[in-house]
Specification:
Number of helices: 6
Radius of gyration: 29 Å
Strand content: under 5%
Largest sheet: 2 strands, antiparallel
Number of domains: 2
Number of strands: 2
Helix content: 40-55%
Distance between the termini: 51 Å
Shape: elongated
Structural class: mainly alpha
Length: about 170
């Protein structure tokens, strides 16, 4: 199969196929007399595999490692890799959910605070006692004399909306 036909069938560019060939993911194409690249059946199969694995979001390095024989089948190696990626994504989602919940709590703290005297007051978002207003400053000064009383973030709790059945 010529490089252009293979590229079209895989919905990639010829440049991509040449790159995969250059880095050893796809076997080198044979050259016809006219200089055109012609891929063997095995090379076409490998190119389809590489493009399919890229569609799963795997890096070229991960694909290279996946294609190395290690006594396990390709299926077993891919299952192991996908399992690890699922765990990595679950961790990333949990981290992002925590950040989302924190920002949501700060946002709602600002909304629920009575209108501040100081127009630029963001103390509620910072989860701290307001020290923007003159009378608040004196109260904050008194509280500062007692260690740990101004650190409100550890005690902040977000009320989650009750889930509705689907």
């Amino acid at each position: 199969m010529h490089i252009g036909a293979l590229a079209r069938s895989l919905d990639v560019t010829t440049k991509t196929l040449r790159h995969y060939e250059r880095i050893g993911l796809v076997p080198r194409a044979e050259r016809e007399r006219n200089g055109y690249r012609t891929y063997s059946t095995d090379a076409v199969r490998r190119a389809r595999l590489v493009v399919g694995l890229r569609a799963l979001g795997l890096s070229l390095e991960a694909i290279r490692e996946l294609l190395v024989e290690d006594g396990r089948t390709l299926r077993q190696r891919l299952l192991g890799l996908l399992d690890q990626q699922i765990r990595d994504h679950a961790l990333q989602i949990a981290i992002l959910q925590g950040r989302h919940d924190d920002l949501d709590a700060r946002y709602h703290a600002m909304l629920s605070e009575p209108r501040p005297v100081a127009p630029d007051c963001i103390c509620a978002a910072l989860m701290r006692v307001c020290d923007c207003r003159p009378r608040c400053r004196s109260a904050v000064s008194e509280l500062q004399s007692v260690p740990g009383t101004l650190d409100l973030a550890p005690r902040a709790r977000r009320k989650l909306p009750s889930s509705t059945p689907k």
